[in-house]
Write a structure and sequence with these properties.
Shape of chain B: globular
CATH topology of chain A: Sulfite Oxidase, Chain A, domain 2
CATH superfamily of the largest domain in chain B: Nucleotide-binding domain of ferredoxin-NADP reductase (FNR) module
Largest sheet of chain B: 6 strands, antiparallel
Strand content of chain A: 25-35%
Strand content of chain B: 25-35%
Largest interface: A-B, 42 and 47 residues
Shape of chain A: globular
CATH class of chain A: Alpha Beta
Helix content of chain B: 10-25%
CATH superfamily of chain A: Oxidoreductase, molybdopterin-binding domain
Largest sheet of chain A: 6 strands, mixed
Order of helices and strands of chain B: EEEEEHEEHEHEEEHEHE
Structural class of chain B: alpha/beta
CATH architecture of chain A: Alpha-Beta Complex
Oligomer: heterodimer
Helix content of chain A: under 10%
Number of helices of chain B: 5
CATH architecture of the largest domain in chain B: 3-Layer(aba) Sandwich
Chain lengths: ~200, ~240
């Protein structure tokens, strides 16, 4: 592709290794991007279910989830709309704990994350394993705001942030891949920011 | 929300576009009309990514909604000059007719109207540069002779700050200015205020779908307004933009 006449760009920041290609550092500004009306989710009535291709379909209430061993992610997040937020933190529970409780069957390969709104996003099961995914309710020590998916959202920070479903309520294990909401609308099935897997057809 | 659009929306790969018209509208708005190589026709509501490339390989890219009708031989994008905006600043200050930009699009299959079998009665409540997809929808509806199926509420601070204000007014949109009074063609004056529920209720009547586009603050206002006017939440599609200069 050609160089753009007259474009030099912002001064390169000190940590270009932290930014995937095509991303910029949003600083402490966290843009809100949602395809739907932010719901009011009452923790007292909310629950999280892991089902589908599992040995034991399991549901946790808000209190039961908080009683599990906690886990914090310290690191970066990357949105497909090109902002990245560096050195942020989220606290909740590791998805490994939930999957271990439910016991994926041998045929489980993918997961559909469902939100209370009906929003869905698909992920390879392997991307939710190995301490790389969380269900979180705190951001930088405070309750997760509703517009950012509060009271509770999925967090898969090594993939573009649309995979981190806001207002998550169900992880459905599947024996094959199936497109979620944005994926059916042209976005990538995996969404690795370092490979720039933004849209269907990207490598 | 749980169902995908009826037909798959068109998707375009990376290509290039040559600026044919570069029109400054006041100090903050820029209309760019491009001749796009191997263009894939879009649906109203879809967007394009513009990518700038420095000679050391550094790139910056941002998304812009399409203002043009798919039947337009050129692709029209509206660019607001954001403070410190890396891409918008370049486009405003440097771009000239004849320059070539990297483009990717069309993109987006959710915030669209007018695909095959999808010309449903709809209302748009849009604010600031969020009016752009509604402009594409209005132009599309006019060309197809179905303008009666689309109702638009366009909200801006002032007439000068509202993109396409004249075109929106001429197309019958309800224009609501929040910082100055607006005198209508018939001499009536609408006092500066956000749109009222009473102004919107009739527009929601018999409508299956609503489109909300604007800043995060505007989007929450507009979805609340639509709800109070009787629109069911599941029929509302939202496109928000945050700071992404």
């Amino acid at each position: 592709m050609p160089v753009t006449r007259g474009f030099s760009g912002r001064p390169r920041r000190g940590r270009p290794d932290r930014l995937p290609p095509g991303q910029y550092d949003t600083g402490r500004d966290w843009p809100v991007l949602t395809a739907e009306v932010a719901p009011v989710v009452d923790p007292a009535r909310w629950s999280l279910t892991v089902d589908g291709e599992v040995e034991r379909s399991t549901t946790w209430s808000w209190e039961e989830l908080h009683a599990l061993p906690g886990s914090t992610y310290d690191g970066d997040i990357h949105c497909v709309t090109t902002w990245s937020m560096l050195e942020t933190s989220f606290t909740g529970v590791s998805v490994d704990v939930l999957l271990d409780a439910a016991g994926p069957t041998a045929s489980a390969t993918h997961v559909m994350a469902h939100a209370t709104t009906g929003y869905t996003t698909n992920l390879p099961l392997a991307d939710l394993r190995g301490g790389r995914a969380w269900v979180v309710w705190e951001h930088e020590g405070r309750p997760l705001p509703a517009e950012h998916g509060g009271p509770v959202r999925l967090l898969v920070p090594h993939l573009y942030f649309w995979k981190s479903a806001k207002w998550v309520t169900r992880l459905e294990l599947m024996d094959r891949d199936r497109p979620g909401f944005w994926e059916a609308n042209g976005y990538h099935d995996r969404g690795d920011p370092w490979l720039e897997q933004r849209y269907q057809g990207d490598p | 929300m749980s169902t995908a659009s009826t037909a798959a929306a068109p998707v375009g790969r990376w290509t290039t576009g040559r600026a044919v018209e570069v029109v400054h509208e006041g100090t903050a708005l820029l209309r760019v009309r491009l001749e796009v190589a191997d263009r894939v026709d879009h649906l109203p509501g879809q967007h394009y990514v513009v990518r700038l490339r420095a000679d050391d390989g550094y790139t910056a890219q941002r998304s812009y909604s399409v203002a043009s009708d798919p039947g337009d031989p050129l692709l029209e994008l509206l660019v607001e000059h954001l403070p410190g905006g890396e891409v918008s600043g370049f486009l405003h200050e440097v771009l000239e007719v004849g320059d070539v930009l990297e483009l990717r699009g069309p993109i987006g299959g959710w915030f669209t109207w007018g695909g095959a079998g999808d010309l449903v009665p709809a209302v748009c409540v849009v604010g600031g540069t969020g009016v752009v997809p509604a402009v594409a929808m209005l132009r599309h509806a006019r060309r197809l002779g179905v303008s009666d199926r689309l109702r638009v509420v366009a909200v801006g601070r002032t007439r000068a700050a509202l993109p396409y204000a004249e075109e929106l007014g001429a197309a019958g949109a309800l224009v609501a200015l929040t910082r100055e009074n607006l005198t209508g063609a018939d001499g009536s004056v609408r006092v500066a205020a956000p749109p009222y529920v009473d102004e919107v209720r009739d527009l929601v009547e018999g409508v299956d779908r609503a489109y909300v586009c604007g800043s995060a603050g505007f989007a929450s206002f507009a979805t609340r307004l639509l709800g109070e006017a009787g629109m069911r939440a599941t029929g509302i599609r939202v496109e928000q933009f945050g700071a992404s200069g």
